[in-house]
Amino acid sequence: MEAYKFSSCAREEKPDNDLTRLLEKAQSGAALTRDEKDRIANTLYGLFGSHSSTYKLAGWAWYMGSCLRRILVNYSWDSNFQPYYAPDKTSLRKALSLPVKEMVYA
Length: 106
Hints:
Low-confidence stretches: none
Largest sheet: 3 strands, antiparallel
Radius of gyration: 14 Å
Mean pLDDT: 92
Number of helices: 3
Structural class: alpha+beta
Shape: globular
Helix content: 25-40%
């Protein structure tokens, strides 16, 4: 699965830019560099990210949950674990702006 339309007023052609090509590269299972992993995690969970495992642009969506690792995060003030999808723990830790107590792969 690459991208799908989620809006009736979406553009006819899916957006083609550096980020969408990177997301499709990750979906295909290709090896990613550290910078690429960091960019994906920052896009999904960074300061201006969507805070979900789906990236949306111009009526199109790229679901990344099926190709990224599920990571459970425990913050220092909370006793519960929150699920995230990211290439690895290092990139997710860089993208999150909150103090993390513990991270585990699920």
